[in-house]
Each structure stands twice: as structure tokens, then as C-alpha cells.
Design a protein that fits this description.
By secondary structure, the protein is an alpha/beta fold. Helix content is about 55%, strand content about 10%. The chain is built from 31 helices and eleven strands. Strands 8-7-6-9-10-11 form a six-stranded parallel β-sheet, with helices on both faces. Strands 1-5-2-3-4 form a five-stranded parallel β-sheet. Helix 4 runs antiparallel to helix 5 (about 75-90) and helix 29 (about 535-545) packs across helix 30.
Length: about 625
């Protein structure tokens, strides 16, 4: 009858048995279970404790009592019951698994993991324990470790829906997007129209930059699961990434109608408000998300970016370290670096270790502050600058007073103090944009390479040489609309009497050839010039052209570093502008901003007109 779900009838039957046999421990225990199953937890506790008085060494009774006490909210009594069960029978895998499930909501994650691991070790094919351990690892940022446990479970039960859907999530977080897609699609084969799988597929396609597919699956997900807030959230993300801001806002509000305190959705809505130029609304939402999820650093990081967007540097810097905790600032060497963090004080001897973060453009930009940091540290300080290996020669030649080496090569135990590159900006610009002194040039290219590049360009004739870069090596869904396509540059290529030079790194030959054929223009490049890995030559070529037009990538940073006039096209609002219409650290850069309701061809048309006027 218990298996058939006829609990009320079973409860009456066991009550009758207990009246007839009041000292039958099994009857008391079964009566307690049935009472618990019909919602009579206090009566169940009484029955099971009576059973334990008669049979105090029965492990099953203690496990049942633990479940009842947990339901009643008695944490201490629950733990005592599990301890008793596991002392009596340390090889009970089910008890270890249940104990882990009790510990986890209390924030005792390490203990829960130990309990799940014991259960899995004792019963290697115990599906629930495998699942619990895998999900714990997934939720604590160890997707790589979770994979093995998901795969063990799926080897036992290949069609297990919860294993499949979370396995797909783990694969997605590891950027194994094709594998993640296949996992979710397999679940859809087993359970057509499953809203969770459709929701996750929307997210996978979003991460892969397949925004139309992300939108399509998001729409299917909300159609079959209209009360599923994550589905509306993912649809909103897909719409936002395509500049469909009004529809995205509606989707996010739908999600919040379902779950008003869904912090992730609130954060995404804040991003949308920021992108739409509604800064005050964005700040309010970021603060609300941070209040709801104080342990989530991403909300504090986005609040920092919101302050940067408006030029509120004093408010931004204290929050900006959250970028390390949420993975937006990489790598994070603060946690294991033995030296203290430098605060700009003069050093009486000692060693200052400067280490890079984020991308190569950020490293080049930070170099504008190396001399100032040397003055702050004092002449007696030894300064070690780590950087991308491609920059070592360039930095060593420009900063001979420093020891320059590839990132990761320095023995950090020799450092007295240390600082990530963006700390240099915090120290130099602590309060506002008014702290920033624009620099016209701060890195000198290799003289021999500069001479070679100038000769190459001179051989092309006397017309103005314009270097172009239209893309980036880092393309994500959120960055997609910040970048152009070369096919959109038709108006620029139509400007007569201009010699175009390719500065776009990476394998772009197919795009270049297609543009040349389409627009009847020559975009000069040389097979022996590696713009990605030979940064010294790329810098020299950038210094040799008359003008650089780029999309706010490292190409623009290189132009600013060598003092070449540069027109940078940016999606706005953009935090590097710091509330202005320019890039404050760079004196030779002009910004063309594009709002969400504008297109790149519109902006490029303005660029083309200005190029024609400049040439004239």
C-alpha cells in the first residue's frame, strides 16, 4: 500500500497494528513513515523515537528520524541522528548521501562534498549520489571536475534527464559548446519540447554567437514554458545582443513578473538600461541585484562599470576588484601572490612586481603609466614588468630601467609588493577624468622595423595611407554588435585617392579578398607581416600609416601608443570613455560613437565623409 500511495489507509492500518503490538519496533517505525508521508511530522517523530527506544542500533530508524527532524527544522537533532546512523554503519551509502543533502543548504559545502564522495566511493553506481556530487561541483565553479561524475551517471542511465541537462550546462561553462548543444538536443529527442532543454539551448547558441538561433530557441522555450523565468531571461539576452532593446526589456520584465527577486535577470535588465543610455535606472538595478545576491561579485563588477561609464572613478575603483572574483579580470593572481598589494608608496629598495591582466590592448595602454609608477616607487626600487611574450622586446627597449619578462616567468617570492596593471590607473586616476593627462605617444617602435615599413608604404605611392581594422580576436555575443563586418565599409572604400592598409590581425584573407572584389579596392598587406604574433612589426606598421580606423580593439591602443592619428569606432555608452566623448588617456584618438538604435553603416558613412574632408 505504501508503494501504491494509499498513505491514509496505510496510516490507519499501522496505527491499529501499533495498538495491538505497542512494542513492535518495525510497526512503530512504519507507522512513523506513513505519518510523515501524510504530513504529520511531529507524530512521526514520536513514533520513530519510540521505535528507537526498542531498537536503538537500527540504522534505518536513525536515517528516518533524521529526515523527520530535518523537515521540522531541527538542525541539531538531524545531525545527531545522522551521526548515530553513520557511527553504527559507516558503510551506509544512502545515509552519507542524505547527510550531504542536509549539510549543503546550511552552506557547509566542503562537508557535503565529503559526504557525497563517501557515498559514491561506497556505492559507485549510486545515481543520486553521483548526481548530487556532480551538481555540487558544477555550482562551486568546478565544471571540469563535475564532468567525470555526470558521465559516470550517464553511462549507467544514458537517458537520465537531470544528468543530461546539467551535463550540458557543465559543458557550456567549459566552452565545449558543440558538446553542450548535443547534450541538450539529446534530452529534446527523449523529451520533445522540454522547456529546460530549450532554455539551455538558447543560452548555448547565445554563447556561440548564433543569436538568431538563440532567439528562436528562447521563443520556443517561453511558448512551452511561459512560467519559466530563465527562459524569458535567455530570450531577453538573445534579443538584447541583436539590439532589439524594446523586446528584450519586455522579456526581462516577464521573467521578473514570475520571479521578482531573480537577481540574474535584474542584472541583465540593468545591462540593457546601461546600453540604452538609462544610467540612473541601471545603477538602481545593479544595486538591487547586489543586495539580493551579496555573494555574487558580478553585480558589484557591473556596478563599477556603470560608475566608469559616467566618469565616477572614485565610486568605481572600490568595486572594480569584483571583476577578479567573477572572472572578468583575468588572471587573478591576487589570491596566491605572496607579496602585499602596492598602494603607490615610495619603496626603500625592494622589488615592485607589475603583472598583466585582460588583453594585449590593455597591456599596451597600461604602459603609458610605467614611467609615473617608477617615479612613485623611487629610484632605488627594482621594478619587474611581466607582460605578454609578444611585448617583451618592445617594453624592454622602451623601459630599460625595468626587468621585463614574459608573464608567469618571475619568481614572485622575490617581490616586496605587487600590482595588477589596472591598479596603475587606479593610482594615477583615483577620482575623476580630470586626473588623466592625455598622452600623444609613449612607445617607440623598433627603428629598423619602422624604416622597413615606411619603405614598404612609400612604394605604394604618395596618397594618404589609412590602416584599417574592423574586427577582434575576441568575439562574444555581448561584443558582437560592438564590431563591424568588412562588407559594411563600402562608403569608406569609396573615398578616392586613399591607399588602404590592412592592420586587422588573424586569418582574414577571405574577408579581404571578398571586399576587394566587391568594392573594387586594394587593401594592401604583406605575407611576411604577422599582425597577430609579431607585435613589434605591427607597431612599426601602425606608426608608418597616416591614419588608423579601428573598432576599439588593440589596434587602436597601438596607434595611440605610437602617436598615429586614430579614429576609433565604439559602441556607446562605453566605459573607457568615462563619461566623455573621447578616450581620455589618448591624445591622438577621435571617437565615433554608435548608439543601440544606430547601425555601423550609418557611422561608417560619417567616417567616410570625414575621411574625404581630411584628405581634401
Amino acid at each position: 500500500m505504501l508503494q501504491a500511495g494509499q498513505m491514509q489507509q496505510a496510516a490507519r492500518m499501522f496505527n491499529a497494528v501499533v495498538k495491538s503490538f505497542p512494542n513492535d519496533a518495525d510497526a512503530l517505525h512504519l507507522s512513523g513513515i506513513t505519518q510523515f508521508n501524510i504530513g504529520q511530522a511531529k507524530a512521526a517523530r514520536l513514533s520513530i523515537r519510540k521505535a528507537l527506544k526498542l531498537s536503538p542500533d537500527n540504522v534505518g530508524y536513525w536515517v528516518s528520524l533524521a529526515s523527520v527532524e530535518e523537515n521540522l527544522g531541527n538542525a541539531e537533532a538531524t545531525e545527531e541522528a545522522y551521526d548515530k546512523a553513520l557511527t553504527l554503519q559507516p558503510g551506509n551509502a544512502e545515509a552519507w548521501n542524505n547527510f550531504g543533502t542536509f549539510l549543503l543548504p546550511q552552506g557547509r559545502v566542503a562537508e557535503a562534498e565529503t559526504a557525497y564522495s563517501r557515498a559514491v566511493k561506497l556505492a559507485p553506481n549510486y545515481l543520486q549520489a553521483l548526481y548530487n556530487l556532480a551538481v555540487l561541483m558544477l555550482n562551486t565553479g568546478r565544471s571540469d571536475q563535475s564532468i567525470a561524475y555526470f558521465e559516470r551517471g550517464l553511462a549507467i542511465e544514458p537517458a537520465h534527464p537531470e544528468f543530461l541537462i546539467n551535463y550540458g550546462v557543465a559543458l557550456q561553462r567549459l566552452r565545449r559548446l558543440d558538446d553542450a548543444r548535443r547534450a541538450q538536443e539529446k534530452l529534446l529527442d527523449l523529451m520533445p519540447g522540454n522547456p529546460g532543454a530549450l532554455t539551455n539551448l538558447s543560452s548555448v547558441y547565445y554563447d556561440a554567437g548564433r543569436l538568431e538561433d538563440a532567439e528562436a530557441h528562447g521563443r520556443k522555450a517561453v511558448e512551452v514554458g511561459p512560467d519559466l523565468a530563465p527562459a524569458w531571461n535567455n530570450l531577453g539576452n538573445a534579443l538584447s545582443a541583436q539590439d532589439k532593446n524594446a523586446e528584450a526589456e519586455q522579456a526581462f520584465h516577464k521573467a521578473l513578473d514570475i520571479e521578482p527577486d531573480f537577481a540574474e535577470v535584474i542584472g541583465n535588465l540593468a545591462n540593457l538600461m546601461e546600453d540604452s543610455g538609462r544610467a540612473e535606472e541601471a545603477e538602481t538595478l545593479y544595486r538591487r541585484a547586489a543586495d539580493l545576491e551579496p555573494g555574487n561579485p558580478r553585480h558589484r563588477y557591473h556596478l563599477a562599470i556603470s560608475h566608469f561609464v559616467r566618469g565616477n572613478l572614485r565610486e568605481a575603483w572600490p568595486l572594480y576588484d569584483a571583476g577578479f572574483d567573477c572572472g572578468e579580470r583575468r588572471p587573478n593572481r591576487l589570491t596566491d601572490h605572496p607579496a602585499g598589494r602596492w598602494q603607490g608608496e615610495a619603496l626603500d629598495g625592494g622589488c615592485l612586481h607589475l603583472w598583466p591582466e585582460q588583453g594585449i590592448g590593455d597591456e599596451i595602454g597600461a604602459a603609458a603609466l610605467f614611467e609615473e609608477m617608477r617615479q612613485r616607487a623611487g629610484a632605488s626600487a627594482d621594478i619587474v614588468i611581466e607582460c605578454d611574450p609578444r611585448l617583451v622586446g618592445l617594453f624592454q627597449r622602451n623601459f630599460p630601467w625595468a626587468t621585463v619578462m614574459p608573464e608567469g616567468d618571475f619568481d614572485v617570492s622575490k617581490a616586496t609588493v605587487q600590482a595588477p596593471y589596472f591598479d596603475l590607473m587606479r593610482l594615477s586616476w583615483p577620482n575623476s577624468v580630470d586626473d588623466i593627462t592625455p598622452r600623444a605617444a609613449f612607445l617607440a617602435p623598433d627603428p629598423a622595423l619602422l624604416d622597413d615599413c615606411r619603405k614598404r608604404l612609400a612604394a605604394l605611392g604618395d596618397r594618404p595611407k589609412v590602416g584599417i581594422a574592423w574586427g577582434s580576436g575576441l568575439v562574444t555575443a555581448r561584443r558582437a554588435t560592438a564590431l563591424s563586418r568588412l562588407e559594411q565599409w563600402g562608403d569608406v572604400f569609396a573615398v578616392p585617392d586613399v591607399t588602404f592598409v590592412n592592420l586587422q590581425y588573424g586569418d582574414r584573407e577571405a574577408e579581404l579578398a571578398a571586399a576587394e572584389e566587391r568594392f573594387g579596392v586594394t587593401i594592401h598587406r604583406w605575407p611576411d607581416v604577422d599582425l597577430k604574433d609579431d607585435i613589434e612589426r605591427a607597431m612599426a606598421l601602425t606608426a608608418s600609416v597616416d591614419l588608423v580606423i579601428n573598432m576599439g580593439t588593440s589596434v587602436g591602443d597601438m596607434a595611440a601608443a605610437v602617436g598615429t592619428e586614430c579614429w576609433t569606432l565604439l559602441r556607446t555608452p562605453s566605459w573607457p570613455l568615462m563619461g566623455t566623448d573621447r578616450l581620455p588617456p589618448y591624445a591622438c584618438v577621435k571617437v565615433y560613437g554608435r548608439r543601440h538604435d544606430q547601425s555601423w553603416p550609418e557611422i561608417l558613412s560619417k567616417v567616410a565623409q570625414d575621411l574625404a574632408d581630411r584628405k581634401a
